[in-house]
Amino acid sequence: MLQAILRGSFLCQVETPDLVTETEETIRWLDMPEAWIVALLILPLVIAFVAFFYKREKPVGNPRWRWTLGGLRLLVLTLALLILANPVRQTKTYERRDSTLVLLVDDSLSQDIKDRYSEREIPKSLARLFRTQADIVEGTTRYDLVRRLVRDEELDFIEKLRKKGKLAVYTFGGSVNSLDKFSKLEGDEEPASEAGDETASAAADDELLPSYSKVRDDPRVQETRVAEGLRDSVSGVLGLGFGKRREKVSGVIMVSDFQQNADTISITEYARRLGERKIPVFTIGVGNPDEPKDIRITNVDVNDVVLVDDDVPFDVSLVADGFEGERVRVDLRIDSAIVSTKYVVLDGSGKRQGVRFRYQPQKAGKLTATVEVEHQGGEVFDDNNSMSRNLTVLDQKIKVLYAEYLPRWEYRYLKNALIRDKTMETQVYLFSADPEFTQDSSTGVPPLRAFPSRKEELFKYHVIIIGDVDPERHLGAGRQELLKEFVASGGGVIFLSGPHSNPLRYARATDLYTILPVQVNETGSLKGVDAPVTESFNVKLSAVGMEHPVMRLDNDPARNRQLWENDDGRFYEHLPGFFWFARAGKAKGNAVVLARHPQLVQSLS
After folding, report:
1. pTM value?
2. Which of 3, 4, 355, 478 is most buried, by CB atoms within 10 Å?
3. What is the DSSP letter of 422?
4. 119-157 tens-digit pLDDT
5. The CATH number, out of the four listed (2.130.10.10, 1.10.1040.10, 3.90.650.10, 2.60.40.10), of the domain defined by the range 294-394
């Protein structure tokens, strides 16, 4: 469509220095044909039409008047055609104003890291930029390096940006935080903030980016939402502006390590959408471009209460990201003294590696045990290389009561192990023994003449082991009630299953059933195996059992699992198998399953 424009343009300069308004008025025809149709078809037809009628009428008179009348007729026809072309008057107003540049700085917790670079040219280049030394650069956090860039008078970073247009400064972590807004800097004009002289003075005092000690405790720095920070800062300028007008964003400069952990939108997608709106995004990366390297102690597993002269195990979990094949020193300190040292070759893949220390406390009291792995150059963090645990050392022995019906093989092994353990005071009671039989007990501990039936007798023990004992015939209702109360008061009871009573008959023993970790029904579905068994089996560790200290025979998780499960069939290198088991129901709600029968792995789920 041909747009014939009659221009009537003028400029209107308003009082606001960054705003120029220009108004343009035009007349256009909405139904005007293309220009070539008008020039080659319509105009020749109109002229031919007027000439045809003049020749047909054979006018007389002065030729000058005849040409004048012919021109008027041609003009009338032309105006009629123009009216049919639907003319409209159009007024356009243009506003020219300085656009806003957004400076968006990451202040999340990752910016409080001091980087150590394997590529030595990086700290050297930064040192030349800031006119300092490379070791000072590596001793400065990412955030403080950005602060130095912003406030360096010779680099003149902020003022150079302001000469391009207005400047809005934001920080972001989990959300954005508006810091300051500056007007455009013209020529040699002194720097000034749009917020007034007071803000400009603060910026001059190096407080445009506050000290990290002032933002470290802000909840928003716990997360990094790069895409949302970009979106919210741009929306803040476009939607609100510096005054009541809608602003134009000329671009965004993002300063970040771009390690996001909580974004709900795609940074790539949102940057593309800004690009479609002619808002470019410029990125400045901070931090080490290498994969982050770190060695950390993730757990120290040790009992809170231990005994004097007891062999106390410390099971340490260590994780290394990077440093593959490096040999590092790991120390166990008791209070401030190193009591044991081990060396570990790091896997470097982020998998857990186990280290086991042993320590025998010599006296009672409180102590602090600290496990520390030596720091390596290039680590991202240096405050996670150690972990401490507070221990209480008691100068007493564990009191154990072991009750059994028949002197089966489990009884013979277990009672000897308990009696010989110097950290325990054990009393054993065998219900099937003759009344004149002297029950077994630790050296110096008097033997039992009957199973305890009074609270003060039973509650002196720390642990009670119930073997294949009939709850009704051997214990009775009174002792069952005492055992239930014993557990409720913090005592420990171990049920050692057997082919006769435990746990077959415990469904009918109400008080003991309440403290059993598995379900038992009254039809006797939880049975022992009566037929002879000639082939052994190895248990399967549960996910909890693989990490639980009770099941830990080796601090290497893979080796420990092989010892229990014997997947490769090397019987002489692993634990011997079991020949008997009690078929169990489901585990109760608070029970923790450590191992299962290999063919009945779902029975306790």
Report:
1. 0.49
2. 355
3. T
4. 889 889 999 999 999 889 988 999 999 999 998 989 999
5. 2.60.40.10
